[in-house]
Amino acid sequence: MGGGQQAYLEAMESLRSAARRPSTEAGWATVDRAVGLLAGRTHCRLSEAHRHLLKMAADQNREVVDVAAGVISMLDVPEPGEDHGLPELRPAVLPALGGSPVRVVEPWLAVVQAVLDLLPGQAALLTPLRDRSGGLADFVYAATSPEAVAPDGRRGRQLVGTRLGEQFPETVISDRWEAYRRVLETGEPTVVGPVPFGEAVYTVRCHRLGSSLFLTWVQHGREQGDNDRIAVTERLGNLGWGEWDLVRGEVHWSAQLYRIYERDPALGPLRREESEALEVAEDLPLRLAAAEAFERGEQVDVTARIKVNGRIKYLRTVADAVRDGAGRPLRIFGIVQDVTARETSVRRLAEVEEQLDEHRRSLHAEHELAARLQQIILPIPEGPIELPGVKVAVRYLPAGQESLVGGDWYHAAALRDGSVLFAIGDVAGHGTQAATTMAQLRYSLRALAVTTSDPANLLGHLNRLTCDLDQERPETAATAIVARYEPAQRRLTWAQAGHLPPLLSRAGRTEPLARPSGPMLGVVEDARYECATLRMELGDVLMLYTDGLVEHRRRTLDEGLDAVIRTVDEAVAASPRQPLAELLSRLRQANPDDDTCILAFRPVTGETQDLRRYLRPG
């Protein structure tokens, strides 16, 4: 690991220590993901995004993980017109072998060029040009550093769009061409040299970047002087200097100052009226206050805006002067730094924070509505309930994140023929839409049970209902299990629609039941569902559940299912006479990403209740 990377990691760790630390690695992963999204959306540095996230957590007196989760929920969607995937460095196709410049237009190249603008030395990104058969025909300059120079005198960005074969025709017939082709094919970097060019000799380093080449070349025997070091410092800090000799009437600008103002050095420094024409009128009070301070003999440090070539830039100016005995300035020295990126990041971070506040308020209101709706339509009994021939226990575990009210539901009720109808389901998504769909499915099942008690038929009706709802609200889908228990025969008939299998605990061993066929609700309009039957025995425990019980971001589905099976085995072994209460007491841990609904039941004979009639006071 390089020193720069290590310094970055140490800086990030110091930032982390200032916040209330997340208790788990998953918490840190959430924070880091939010920082990345925040930096990407506002185009600021990771450290700035991290500091702003910690500031928001402190201002709101909330855990940084909770704030990070809110950032993710709002920003983890593509912006309009945004390519959601990583940029692909696509090779251009050579249209014809001619001398015309080739224009390479890719959105990511602006980022590459912005980086190269600040790099010292000679560097370039070259995009391969292919002929019709796919062979390598040439390279085109796609991005260049300011010091990159060609034999025809073109320098820096003037090279963009030209071909390597035009500027260095000898490259195509040299060993370098084969080396470049090999780097493209294998991805292995290489060093080529010494390469003579005129009276100078160079070493070329070549790396593959996507499907393009990144080249840097260094001249042998060239020592870096003080002027070179100053130029490099100016580019890295994006700052330039100016000197105004008021006695002689002379003005001198550094090369970087011309770049900041995007002015041709041949025109010389800006005249006063030209400079004033670039100023933004709204910043006039700021500039006047700085001028008054300068007149009082103070050093000036002011950040104001200018408009250059239709774009707004933020420039920080630090100025001081050599003065005569009366305090009048004789020579003025100034440093101008382009801080547009920093100021833009601060503004964008403030905008995102405002959006996050509004988003959080909206989510909180929706959560409150969905939670109230859920409590009304899905009452959870405090203790076990008794139905004909069975004892039933239900538990609902809300998601760890308050904004994730889900569409998990259950049903347990006696039918007129003495049997018992069980159901459990999970509507895709969260919030009021999921809760509303859950209510429609649950109440529809109760109504349909008046006409039929066949689980497969009931799922068929629910499937058609879900398909109809999908026409009104796209992407409506759900999973479910419907089961009918006949106490006299202790027979269970059940069907499922894309739902996880029930778990049967028998004789101290728990296993998932083999599922009959049946797709999710809302996917296939004319779906058919099959039934399976099971004769239950005294001492059996059958558990229905939604996927929040077994799915978790830090483990696979199989690992989650194995953990639940172990819990069921341990609960039944610990309390064979009252396994339901013991089971639910052990299944208390909420999933941070999803709600969980659990419905467990076991057959009972009713003999204990029948003995009560013999208990008469003597």
Automatic annotation (TrEMBL):
Keywords: Coiled coil, Hydrolase
A GO molecular-function annotation: RNA binding
InterPro entries: ANTAR (IPR005561), Bact_Sigma-Reg (IPR052016), PAS-assoc_C (IPR000700), PAS-like_dom_sf (IPR035965), PPM-type-like_dom_sf (IPR036457), PPM-type_phosphatase-like_dom (IPR001932), WH-like_DNA-bd_sf (IPR036388)
PROSITE patterns named in the record: ANTAR (PS50921), PAC (PS50113), PPM_2 (PS51746)
Coiled-coil boundaries: 342-369
Hydrolase found in the keyword field: yes
Domain named PAC: residues: 298-351
A Pfam family per the record: ANTAR
Keyword flag Coiled coil: yes
Classification via SUPFAM superfamilies: PP2C-like, PYP-like sensor domain (PAS domain)
The organism's place on the tree of life at top rank: Bacteria
Domain annotation ANTAR: ranges: 11-72
Domain PPM-type phosphatase intervals: 391-602
PANTHER family reported for this sequence: STAGE II SPORULATION PROTEIN E (PTHR43156:SF2), STAGE II SPORULATION PROTEIN E-RELATED (PTHR43156)
Full protein name: Phosphoserine phosphatase rsbP
Native organism: Actinoplanes friuliensis DSM 7358
Higher taxonomy: Bacteria, Bacillati, Actinomycetota, Actinomycetes, Micromonosporales
